[in-house]
Amino acid sequence: MSVSTAFEKARADGRAALVGYLPAGFPDVAGGIEALRAMVDAGCDVLEIGLPYSDPVMDGPTIQAAAQQALEGGVRTTDVLRTVEAVAATGIPTLVMTYWNPVERYGVERFAADLADAGGAGLITPDLTPDPDVAGAWIAAADRHDLDKVFLVAPSSTDERIAMTTAACRGFVYATAVMGVTGARATTSDLAGPLVARTRALSPSGADLPIGVGLGVSNGDQAAEVASYADGVIVGSAFVRALLDHPDDRAAGLRTLTALTEDLARGVRRA
User: What DSSP letter does each residue of 137-168 carry, written as one string?
Assistant: First the structure.
């Protein structure tokens, strides 16, 4: 199933899609695969697999801690691709979320080819703007391998930037509605709704391009609120925290992760 199909299916059901994130190699490669499969079984519609990076300038402390644990465990880009292959085999659209430097070091064309071979749906690039002179190599490689290109918009984005970004996206556009680093929050942002409205109005595809919102959602009530105006609710830090809170009891971590996923899945269905 493609990312766009997953969003279309959710829209046909009258709800938003639930998009879940975990970094590859956390708590280790096998454990990460097991956790991601549990999220599929409990109701995630799309999965983002993070490529752990040594300088995660946009990530909050929760995701940084998980990525550091993965790096200390020796995770490599090949392990990320192996995780993608295992998770994509479930039939759930599976994207990689990564800073740009690891892709450039691996080789843009090689990365695109290997991601497609692993069954990956595409790439989310938070620190790569879709300017042709900056992202041209990735856009061309992604198009050659039929991979989705997910770029970010933020409350600070100009109308011109939003129009350019949405024109370059395929799959969905990622609206990050909290200024600053990522992380679960007790309340949702009042910037999210207006950002979604602006993005929808400025997108050349209009309502056809799904908009996923990431702003620190950590429970079903928050998911329902975001689902009332967005096409997708993106959750990362809360999933990571579910595993971080049980470092010595993997079974308990998986139970917590499953319960959280089920709560969020109910939330996107009651909006």
Answer: HHHHHHHHTT-EEE-EE-TT--HHHHHHHHHH
Q: Which of 13, 45, 59, 104 is catalytic?
A: 59
Contact 212, 43 (CB under 8 A): no
CATH superfamily of 3-269: Aldolase class I (3.20.20.70)
Regarding pTM above 0.90, the answer is yes
Is-catalytic flag, 59?
A: yes
pLDDT, tens digit, 9 for 90 and up, residues 50-87: 999 876 556 678 888 888 988 899 999 999 999 999 99
Asked if 38 and 261 touch (Cβ cutoff 8 Å), the reply is: yes
String of b and e for 23-50 (b: at least 16 CB within 10 Å)? Answer: bbbbbbbebbbbbbbbbbebbbbbbbbb
φ, ψ for residue 254, nearest 5 deg:
-65, -40
Torsion angle of the four alpha carbons 67, 115, 176, 168, in this order, in degrees rounded to the nearest 10: 150
CB 7, CB 44: distance < 8 Å: no
CB 45 within 8 A of CB 72: no
Phi-psi region of 47 (alpha: psi -120 to 50; beta: other; left: phi over 0): beta
Question: Cβ distance 165 to 128 under 8 Å?
Answer: no
The label of the residue with tokens 């929050």 reads 185
Which of 45, 48, 114, 148 is catalytic? The answer is 48
Question: What b/e readout covers 181-217, taking b as 16+ CB neighbours within 10 angstroms?
Answer: bbbbbeebbebbbebbebbbebbeeeeebbbbbbbbb
